[in-house]
Amino acid sequence: MKQFFGKKSRSALATVLMVSLALHIVAILIFGTIKFVSEALREETVFEAAPVEVAPQQQPEYTVNIQQRNQVTPPPRPPTIVVNNPSELDIPALDIEVDIESASVVSRSAGSFRGNLSEVREMAVNTANLFGRQVEATKLGVLLDVSFSTHGVMTNVIEEIRKSFPDTSIVFVPGCNMHERKSEVVPIADFEQTAAKYPLRAGRVFTTKPFIDGLLQTKGFKRVWDSVKSQGRGHVVFTEIFNGWDGNAGSDDAIKFLVRNGADTIYWFADFEDRIDPALAKKVASTLKSSRAKLIMHDFKAPLGKNNNLESLQMLAEQTSGELFLKELY
């Protein structure tokens, strides 16, 4: 044992131990350094992520169609009324005012349609056949020659016209003269009172009252006269007579009266034997044109347009888009 652990052996062992210790120390230093460096690098390394770009989102477009509606809740239904006899049903009167004047009315006529509800109905265009001619009017005005020559047919003429135009306005004229005279147009209700101011006859010419009195003696005319009077749609022309040979006048004033009262078509019934002044006829045509009123002239006795009246009558028809025709009645 002593030999085995000799000086040389102890020296070799010490060398081995020293080398081993040195190796361990070196290994520890190396691993320690690696550990330290790793920790340091891990703490100091900072990764910056690239900024994320958020794509802008487009707002969806919506088309909204909103209709405004006024929703009205209907009132509750009234209780059902049952009656055995409808005539026994007591219906209260309705106090309703209709403002016709505030309404805007468009028609062919320049005249205004104002008044009660019956006048509102006249705004509807009415078309009818009168003695073979188509007559169209929203408000028809009628001019009637009441001289003795018309007495045999006058009642039938009025009834025929009123059958198709029940609300027509009628003006009774003593003859069919058209020349300068002072005339007045009065309601039938004022006939007797006005007639008292005029003579019954001037020279060879009768004035208005004898003509009307003669008509009232014919069959059925008084009934027609009273009916038109009750409706307030009948008027009579009275005119001054300076010379008995000139005859009565007033046809021009009657036409102007009807135009002022809204007639858009005027039906003139006469024999056209009386004198028509051409200059005055042109003034009447101008009045009718400015009001866009049509003049239809019915000559009931041949020949058409007597006593040099044909040219003036044809001018009146042409200027008013009207008509002159012959239809004999006996």
Radius of gyration over all CA atoms, rounded = 57 Å
CATH class of the domain at 117-326: Alpha Beta
> What is the mean pLDDT?
79
Would you count the extended β strands for me? 11
Main sheet characteristics = 7 strands, mixed
Question: How many separate helices?
Answer: 9
User: Any idea what the shape is?
Assistant: rod-shaped
- According to CATH, the fold-level topology of the domain at 117-326 is Rossmann fold
Based on the coordinates given, report the CATH architecture of the domain at 117-326.
3-Layer(aba) Sandwich
The termini sit apart by 188 Å
Give the arrangement of secondary structure elements.
Elements: H1 7-44, H2 117-121, E1 126-130, E2 133-137, E3 140-145, H3 154-164, E4 169-173, E5 183-187, H4 191-195, E6 201-202, E7 205-206, H5 208-216, H6 221-231, E8 234-239, H7 251-260, E9 265-270, H8 278-290, E10 294-299, H9 310-319, E11 323-326
Parallel strand pairs: 3-4, 3-9, 4-8, 9-10, 10-11
Antiparallel strand pairs: 1-2, 5-8, 6-7
Helix pairs in contact: 7-8, 8-9
State the main characteristics.
alpha/beta; 11 strands; disordered N terminus; seven-stranded mixed sheet; two-stranded antiparallel ribbon
Polypeptide structure, described:
It is built from nine helices and eleven strands. The strands form three sheets. The chain has a seven-stranded mixed beta sheet. It has a two-stranded antiparallel sheet with strand order 1-2. It has a domain at 117-326: Rossmann fold (3-Layer(aba) Sandwich). Helix content is 34%, strand content 16%. Mean pLDDT is 79; it is low at 1-5, 82-88 and 98-115. By secondary structure, it is of the alpha/beta class.
